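Treating backbone geometry as a discrete language has practical consequences that deserve illustration. In the encoding step, the backbone of a single protein was reduced to a row of integers, each denoting a local shape. The amino acid sequence and the backbone structure tokens for this protein are reproduced below.
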Amino acid sequence: MSGNQTSVSTQKNLSVLITGGSGLIGKYLTSGLLAMGYNVSHLSRNNNHSSSVRVFLWNPEKRMIDFEAFEGIDFIIHLAGANIGEKRWTGKRKNEIIKSRVETARFLHEMVVDRGIRLKAFISASASGIYGAETSSKIFVENDPPAEDFLGSVCKAWEEAADLFCNSGIRTVKIRTGVVLEKTDSALSKLMIPGKFGFLVKTGAGRQYMPWIHIVDLCNIYIKAIEDSSMCGAFNAVAPQHVTHDDFMQVLGKVMKRPVFALPVPGFVLSTLLGEMSDVILKGSRVSSEKLINAGFWFQFSSLEDALYNVIGS
């Protein structure tokens, strides 16, 4: 899967433990790692899903975990977290979004330290939402401070929990992910739904930026984070091409051969339907991938049009 040059070549029999392995990114990443010869296992709240890997049970709220999951592992990839776009952001849902990311990372850290596990690296998902739901002329980079809105505060707490591993002397990488391009179970698949009825619809004014990344490139970033021992800290996992929502929908319309509905869905309608969560759709700024590129990462899909043709045509 990976076409990137890394400072450490793939070593057979290295073991990777993934939380959230049955999710969108986890499924693709698991397949890629298995194909490269890694041993992969998942931590899951249930064992009733089909999997090509060994599944260990855990329940962080009840502080339950199968300690056998830690035997012989070299890396932990922490992808677990409640879907931010699945439900309206009530107070209860906000708490669930935060705890599912932060408390699980803290629990993992406690288990790793208590059992003296010598990890080669801890790699955590994060999100480009750390820079906040705003539309501005600024291009955000990794050393910009977190925003003070809900998504910014979630990502800040998420990354602080990951940094517990760093403070314990374990190499820690935080992958700040944009909109993932994948056909069946993603934000893109939701944008494609009106296409079944012969048209597409843009939301808001369309001037908000949409930092995006192809699922293959995202998985390759995680693989590079495993193999490249010089990678440490936060990295923006977004393609180098900056596009507005309007640009995105026009390219999507071209690829799907569907007209884009000229009258955008008014922002107040989305605000009424979705509440505070509408900011994710209605606002967005540019995010830089320069640090990742300078680390030696090469994007297979740096053009939105190429990425969409690959995703939708596959």
